[in-house]
Amino acid sequence: MSDEQAGRLSAELTGLSQALWETYVRPASSFVDDDERQRREEEREQLDAVASALRKPNLPDPSGLLIVSYSSVEEAAHRLGRVLHQAADEALTEAVAADVGVEVDAVVRAELGDLSGRAEQAASLDRVDASPVQVSAADELLRTRLLGGELLSAAVDPAAACVAAAHWLAAAAVVAADEAGVAPERVFATADDIEAVSVEVPTLVVRKVLTEQVSPRQVVIDLLRKAVAAADGVVDRPDQVIADYDRLKKLVARLPAVQREEVLASEPVRTTLLDPRRPARDLLEHLLNGIASCRLLYAEYAGDDFGDDAEFEDDDEDVSSGSGATVGTEDVESGGVEAFAALVRLEVEETRDRLS
Question: What is the Cα–Cα distance from 215 to 205, expressed in whole angstroms?
């Protein structure tokens, strides 16, 4: 094989891998438009055609005409197959076919929530969907170490981690709000008066989950969908953008005339609250920061009652959570962090149906 052929082989392998994982990252379930949803479903079905396209690719006819597939996955496989056909090396073809088979299998297993082996690369991708298996894995990590931040480095799908974190954030906001005597939606703005924390994203998530009764999964998917649309140069909900801009103009109208144009120019209406280049990771960081903010506010108002040296000495002296549940010494270890985490766990258990 010449250097040129080797370069083409490497490029086509990369292209096929990208096309395969695109079916995982942007599944049909993440689209609202029926036509796009159907197109994505058909694209996903092409995973079964990769092996045959690789071994028997479309080749130019005697007049030089070439059939090109509309499917990114199928055409990527045909392109790779044409490079192998030109190389005419049976051993190379078998080796490449075997490796591609492993890649396809990794995509399928990742869809099922199995991120072992090569499928582990899915943990670095921003998928606009969440596997129930991966949500459960993230939920268990939060249960073990609520404030440990393991989700940021664990081999867990980021979107699924966001769903679990949104559920735990809502519970943490209830616990902190109960201790501070504020509404759950006000927890983050209040904590921001103590030290700089993320406010806008955690507030929106808590309002959606607790006030509007939207499931954590739907809240996460909606936020990710808007971020992906923004990355593609599309406004997901133009009516909301217009409404946001109208509200901004009403607020600006209260300012002196000389300041209005300057504020409107410096405060553009955003179509997404997340970083479009890494939406799931960005959202997860906001959610975990929000949980830490709840702990910060809880500690500020709990004071000596739940300080670092505090201990629960009697099972009869239970601590009440915001939902009315109680926790005794068998559930709470000494120390403010453990007390806060235990109360949040109780709140999470009482609202377990949100994750279903």
Answer: 10
What are residue 327's phi and psi, to 5 degrees?
Answer: -140, 130
Tell me how far CA of residue 332 lies from CA of 217, 300, 326, in angstroms. Answer: 29, 19, 11
Query: 47-56 burial, b for 16+ CB within 10 Å, e for fewer?
Result: beebeebbee
Between helix 279-302 and helix 158-180 the angle, nearest 10°, is 20
- Which tokens in the block code for residue 76? 């990527």
Helices (H), the chain: 3-25, 34-45, 50-55, 72-87, 90-111, 132-144, 158-180, 187-192, 200-206, 216-231, 238-252, 257-266, 279-302, 336-350
How high is the pLDDT of residue 315? 38
- Has residue 28 got a pLDDT over 60? yes
Q: How far apart are CA 237 and CA 291, in angstroms?
A: 28
Cα first-last separation, the chain: 53
Stated pTM of the model: 0.78
> Pick from 69, 157, 67: which is nearest to 110 by CA?
157
Q: Once rounded to an integer, what is the mean pLDDT over residues 228-246?
A: 71
Tell me the pLDDT band of 5, cut-offs 50, 70 and 90. Answer: confident
Mean pLDDT throughout 27-52? 91
Q: How far is CA 25 from the centre of its chain?
A: 11
